[in-house]
Specification:
The complex is a heterodimer of chains A (about 160) and B (about 160). Chain A has 5 helices and 6 strands; from the N terminus they run H-H-H-E-E-H-E-E-H-E-E. The mean pLDDT of chain A is about 90. Chain A folds into 2 domains: about 40 residues, Winged helix-like DNA-binding domain superfamily/Winged helix DNA-binding domain (Arc Repressor Mutant, subunit A); about 80 residues, 2-Layer Sandwich (Alpha-Beta Plaits). The N and C termini of chain A lie close together (about 10 Å). Chain A is an alpha+beta fold and about 160 residues long. Chain A has a 4-stranded antiparallel sheet. In chain A, a hairpin with a 4-residue loop joins strand 3 and strand 4. In chain B, about 35% of the residues lie in helices and about 30% in strands. The radius of gyration of chain B is 20 Å and the shape is elongated. Chain B has 2 domains: about 40 residues, Winged helix-like DNA-binding domain superfamily/Winged helix DNA-binding domain (Arc Repressor Mutant, subunit A); about 70 residues, 2-Layer Sandwich (Alpha-Beta Plaits). Chain B is built from 5 helices and 6 strands. Classes of the chains: A alpha+beta (about 160), B alpha+beta (about 160). At the A-B interface, strand 1, helix 4, strand 3, strand 4 and strand 5 of A face helix 1, strand 1, strand 2, helix 4 and strand 3 of B.
Chain lengths: ~160, ~160
């Protein structure tokens, strides 16, 4: 799964786009002293190779009464981890699904309104997946940092 | 991810705003003209709406770089137990470390849940033992390694 690293020009373009991805190719080209075609082609290539993803984020502070919930899932049999994780990855409300070593088998992260909403979500969407043995949830009270310019871009 | 909750009243977002945000989530480089055509609006309207969403700090459109492409081969969740210091202030100290890319103060077995990245095992050891474990107030770290990330697309972040 190792992907090619970025060269200096790629990095300069990404640096500009990670501040504001609405900046035009023409402007980036002018700032970096390359042609507009170069910028366009490189952005396209980096997106196609899943090295970068250009997307909109909304500010969680603009939403009323929401917090992040960490949901740890333990499966019945270790051989079921992959299948359960795959099913969980299709749940729209989950922003993160990872197969883990150590604390539990799977970690999922989502946004909920309160304890009641969390319980409802876990009961309705997670516990019902075949193979899920038990779940343990943690509710966030203060979301201090999230570097949204960094993520695992799934192929 | 959809937003299941109402937006705070100080910036009222209508259906058109939500449609614009949805299109930009799919493709952050979609030209204003294309957005306008898809939603049956003028280009000037779309431009104005996007500017308002950005200026009010409600939405940002940015490039996200894959962590592996950035040279980080390991991703871990780290639960933190705190002593003699508030979880908030320990969380703020942790947030200053670039490899700590997500930090949340939580209620539960741990006081803080963080997501961290490391280049390799040696860098991970340094990050955990020398930097995080030695922060004032950190009592215990409970790391867990992500062996496969199947999904990592949070739409909700503190901007």
């Amino acid at each position: 799964m190792t992907r090619r690293r970025l060269d200096d020009v790629d990095r300069a373009i990404v640096n500009r786009l990670s501040q504001d991805a609405r900046t035009s190719n023409r402007q980036i080209a002018a700032e970096l002293g390359v042609t507009e075609g170069t910028v366009r082609a490189r952005v396209k290539r980096m997106e196609e190779k899943k090295q970068i993803r250009i997307t909109a984020f909304t500010n969680i502070d603009r939403f009323r009464d929401v917090c992040l919930a960490y949901i740890w899932v333990e499966v019945e049999r270790t051989s079921q981890v992959r299948e359960v994780a795959r099913k969980m990855a299709t749940i729209r409300e989950l922003g993160f699904v990872g197969e883990m070593l150590g604390r539990s088998d799977i970690l999922a992260i989502t946004m909920v309104r309160d304890h009641e909403h969390l319980a409802e979500f876990v009961y309705g969407q997670i516990s019902s997946i075949p193979g899920v043995r038990r779940t343990e949830s943690t509710l966030g009270v203060n979301f201090v940092k999230h570097d949204y310019r960094m993520a695992r871009i799934v192929q | 991810m959809s937003n299941p909750v109402a937006i705070d009243s100080h910036l009222y977002l209508d259906e058109v705003d939500h449609q614009i945000i949805a299109l930009l989530r799919e493709d952050g480089r979609l030209p204003f003209r294309a957005i306008a055509r898809q939603l049956g609006l003028t280009e000037a309207t779309v431009r104005g709406r996007v500017r308002r969403l950005e200026d009010s700090n409600t939405m940002r459109v940015v490039a996200v770089t894959d962590i592996e492409v950035s040279g980080y081969n390991m991703l871990l969740s780290v639960g933190v137990q705190v002593e003699n210091r508030t979880p908030e202030s320990v969380a703020r100290s942790m947030a200053e470390i670039p490899e700590v890319f997500s930090v949340n103060v939580v209620v539960g077995t741990h006081d803080i849940e963080a997501l961290v990245v490391a280049e390799d095992q040696a860098a991970l050891h340094t990050l955990l033992s020398d930097r995080l474990a030695k922060l004032p107030g950190v009592r215990r770290l409970t790391p867990s390694l992500a062996v496969d990330v199947l999904k990592n697309q949070p739409d909700w972040v503190p901007l």
